[in-house]
Amino acid sequence: MVGALGADDYLVHDAPNGAVALEKALLVHPDIVVTAFDLPVVSGAELIESLRLLVRPRPAIVALSRFVRAALWCNDNGVEIFLAEPFTLASFVRAVSHR
């Protein structure tokens, strides 16, 4: 996914866990954050809530998960884009580019 977005001229910062992702977002102020829902250290839900509280301007959120509970949480919490796993790389790039 990182390679596909980079090939589409997105400047991509990846992170090994939700805590590092939040730190990077606070420094970079991204336009879009793509997050898995089941992340180590800080979960995707916690990351999304923290991004909304702390990062300005607010980034668009793209959440990824194979779990129905994640889709429901995203729907209830106004996440802009949710992709159910498995998905194709093409559908991922389309979703990010049309946010």
Write the element-wise H/E pattern from the N-terminal end onward: HHEHEHEH
> Numbering strands along the chain, what is their spatial order in the largest sheet?
1-2-3
In angstroms, what is the radius of gyration? 12 Å
In which range does the helix fraction lie? 40-55%
Termini Cα gap: 16 Å
Low-confidence stretches: none
Number of domains: 1
Describe the structure.
The protein is an alpha/beta fold and 99 residues long. It has one domain (2-66, 79-97): Response regulator (Rossmann fold, 3-Layer(aba) Sandwich). It has helices at 2-7, 18-28, 44-54, 68-76, 89-97, and strands at residues 32-36, 60-65, 81-84. The chain has a three-stranded parallel sheet with strand order 1-2-3, with helices on both faces. Strand 2, helix 4 and strand 3 form a beta-alpha-beta unit. Helix 2 packs parallel to helix 3. The longest helix has 11 residues, at 18-28. 21% of the residues are buried. The mean pLDDT is 94.
Topology (SSEs and partners):
Elements: H1 2-7, H2 18-28, E1 32-36, H3 44-54, E2 60-65, H4 68-76, E3 81-84, H5 89-97
Parallel strand pairs: 1-2, 2-3
Helix pairs in contact: 2-3
What would you say about this model in short?
With 99 residues, the protein is of the alpha/beta class.
